[in-house]
Design a protein that fits this description.
single chain; globular; ALAD; binds ligand PBG; 10-stranded mixed sheet; heme biosynthesis; porphyrin biosynthesis; EC 4.2.1.24; TIM Barrel; 11 helices
Length: 327
Amino acid sequence: MQQLEFQRHRRLRNSAGMRAMVRENYVSTNDLIHPLFVVEGNDVKREIPSMPGVFHFSLDQFRREVNEVSELGIPSIILFGIPDHKDDCSSQAYAEEGIVQQAIRAAKEENPDLVITTDVCLCQYNPAGHCGIVENGEIVNDPSLELLAKTALSHAQAGADLIAPSDMMDGRIAAIRHTLDQNGYQNIPVLSYAVKYASAFYGPFRDAAHSAPSFGDRKTYQMDPANGREAMREAESDVMEGADMLMVKPALAYMDIIRQLRDRYDLPIVAYNVSAEYAMVKAAAQNGWIDERAVVMETMTGFKRAGADLILTYFSKDIARYLKAGY
Ligand code: PBG
């Protein structure tokens, strides 16, 4: 038979050592941001049914969790608050003694070196369950900016290190940046949920955070999953308004968007591996249908390959343990 010309790609896959030499992407514990839900009350550590292994913590239990996360070497947590009291002006979002503000101070006491990231949004704090202010059944943009900026400022005043607005109102990065600067917080960075889609993958989170909208949906402010070019316009606005990092959310169905942002901007890019992405893996693993560790690490490596620098994931404690064990 005549000699065929072809490439022998398999040469570089011959052994574990060779594969390690040519490996292009790694997940590191330094890449991780760990989400934590804080509730009012005492001695509460309640598992969220649709998110096995994820809990609601009252502040005392939260302190223990902060230490566990710190001991695993995870550099950052992001806080989500679930207040007892909701009102139309979302007052607990920016109250000095609000649940998130208290949690920030508690986390700082436990570990001053942990980077405390805070989710800035109103949906957990008003009965309508929308991310902005509701007037006559409409989510009004500009009046919402003031409350969002006020919320961000209250987080900075409590000691937050990184402010992450997730509301998707237009102009919120400029409003928050301006308010932080005016109050002496020029050095507190903003991580924008720049590209946030109106996604069905947030279902378990909304159960967890009691933040499902009481009417309508979030499609007038969160993005249409069909749109990619529009994501570039959203990101461009946030970069111009002063964002220091850009997030894509959800992550798995939006890997192309992560890649496009990576190619277009030199800011750190964050992938949010959201609640249903977590729940689906957990459910399949519990049924014995997949190898959880292998699927989790393959997914995370995929985010890195797509161009993410950082990964916000409910799996981060597991990942830190896998990495420690040399996986
Ligand atoms: C609040 C917020 C949501 C998530 C993070 N911040 C819910 C939403 O927009 O409906 C979802 C996170 C997840 O699903 O893990 N705006």
